[in-house]
Amino acid sequence: MAISVLDVRDTFAVPHVPARASVATAETAPRRLPVTIVSAGLIGVLQAVGLLAVALTGLDGFLSSASRPAGWIVGGGLLLLAAWIVACAGSGAALIDGAGRKLLMGVAYAELVVVAMLLVVATSMSIPTPGDIPVPVLGLMAVAVPVGKLLLAAAPSAQQWVAAGPRTKVRRADPVQAHRLLATVTLGIIGLSLTAVAVLAPVQSGGPNDPASAVFTQP
Fold first, then answer.
1. In angstroms, rounded to a whole number, what is the distance separating the alpha carbons of residues 129 and 123?
2. For residues 55-64, b (16+ Cβ closer than 10 Å) or e, as one string?
3. Is residue 105 within 8 Å of residue 146, measured between CB atoms?
4. How far apart are CA 49 and CA 57, in angstroms?
5. Closest CA to 104 of 53, 156, 158
6. Which listed residue, of 5, 73, 171, 190, carries a Cα 20 to 30 Å from 211's Cα?
7. Nearest-angstrom CA–CA distance, 167 and 165
8. How far apart are CA 15 and CA 13, in angstroms?
9. Residues 161 and 97 sit within 8 Å (Cβ to Cβ)
10. How far apart are CA 21 and CA 35, in angstroms?
């Protein structure tokens, strides 16, 4: 009877596993940035830099023109332009970090809507284009940027990158704490060098070319 009870207990009981054996010791491999993520993020950052450069070069001429609109329109346009630049750069950085791709895709969809509206206005009205470029060609060039961002952000590798979450930041040791002796020796050498320069090559004062003497000299 005792043997049967022990057999039943061993059958239904949970096997005892040591705590040390249950802890996983596998090391996580570093994540590699997919090409689609790098390309989409760089497009967003470079677009922000290009918008900022265009704004800085053309803002002076726009504000000094005779056909300048009202002040509140100029202020609103500058505010929208600043928000556009920040959104482009921020969405690209967030995608590279793995925080998400909704902001980048939202900015790209908004850019497509704006480009479509501008194309309608340009075809219905005679608006001069930069470099006398035809309106369809200019529209295709403007649409290529948001479409490229959408295609890259919707790639399977980009979706897997965002689904994995933001990258974990690796803590690095303070170089001063890790190489305290080298830092102390370097600081001592810099101090001795400055002291030697001050002792061996003192500044000559009171000469005709001295700024202080020239100030207090009366004619």
1. 11
2. beeeeeeeee
3. no
4. 12
5. 158
6. 190
7. 7
8. 6
9. no
10. 39
pLDDT score, position 216? 44
Distance CA 161, CA 167 (A): 9
Tokens 């202020």 correspond to 75
Query: In terms of Cα–Cα distance, which of 55, 51, 33 is closest to 43?
Result: 51
Radius of gyration of the chain (CA): 33
Q: Residue 38 corresponds to which tokens in the numbers above? A: 């790098």
- What per-residue confidence (pLDDT) applies to 100? 84
Residues in CB range of 107: below 8 A, 6 or more apart = 44, 84, 87, 88, 91, 146, 149
Place of tokens 């005779």: 66
- The secondary structure of residue 16, as a DSSP letter, is P
**Tokens 């061993």 sit on residue:** 10
Amino acid at 26: A
Cα–Cα distance between 99 and 166 in angstroms, integer? 5
- Per-domain boundaries in the chain: 35-163
What pLDDT score was predicted for residue 27? 41
Under-70 pLDDT residues of the chain? 1-31, 128-132, 167-176, 201-219
Q: How would you class 146 by CB atoms within 10 Å of its CB: exposed for 0-12, middle for 13-18, buried for 19 or more?
A: buried
Query: What's residue 6's pLDDT?
Result: 47
Rounded-to-integer distance, Cα 92 and Cα 49, Å: 12
